[in-house]
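Hi all, long-time lurker, first post. I run a small reading group and we've been trying to get comfortable going from sequence to structure in the token notation. Rather than ask abstract questions, I figured I'd post a concrete chain and ask someone more experienced to write out its structure so we can walk through it together at our next meeting. Sequence below, copied exactly:
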Amino acid sequence: MKKIEKIYLYKMTTDNGGAPCVYNSILTLAICKPKIRSTAQKDNWIIGFGGKNLKERLIYVAQVAEKLPNGKYYKTEEYSKRPDCIYRWDSENQKYDWVTDKKYHANGSQIKDDIDNGKALVLLSEEYTYLGNLGTSEYKEKYPEIRKKVEALKQGHRVNHSEVLFNELKCLIKESIPLKIEGKPSDTDCSKICNTTEGDMEVIPRKSHKCI
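-- Answer (accepted) --
Happy to help. Here is the structure in token form:
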């Protein structure tokens, strides 16, 4: 595992398999969370916790392996069968269209946020664990700083956080990734919109520490 330098964490109000999407041993973040998709870079980490309706459970941990630019995800056949590849590029009319047989964001209702003014950036991860419905909030007992931050997380909240918090997040990553779990989505309703989150944070460590 490479040195952990930046972590993104957020609280999800929906976990229905759309964002993130786990398919054929690759986790993707293609729809929702345009700010994270725009700013996260290769080797950065993303941690998704459940919102209050999901009892603030740990949902997934993933390292960005690749960032696909300029709508590549929707313009090539390589990713077309993935469940979250819900748009196709119409080269004749120079626009993105929602694919009618896809189950997320029906009729392109969220295309503006998903495509993010034409950027259409997509994050791919091969190093991840997706707990989904198997996720728990047990981390709160072991990591008090994470518990406090998750419970208080606000929309768009970004800080250079404390050494203690970064250390706990790093340890949570290192103990979660080897599990290689691929659970099932917590929600079965694919019509739920995943753009709404209860908060997110960009995490830049001040110092590096060893795991407790």
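A couple of things your group might point at:
Residues 163-176 form the longest helix (14 residues).
The longest strand covers residues 197-203.
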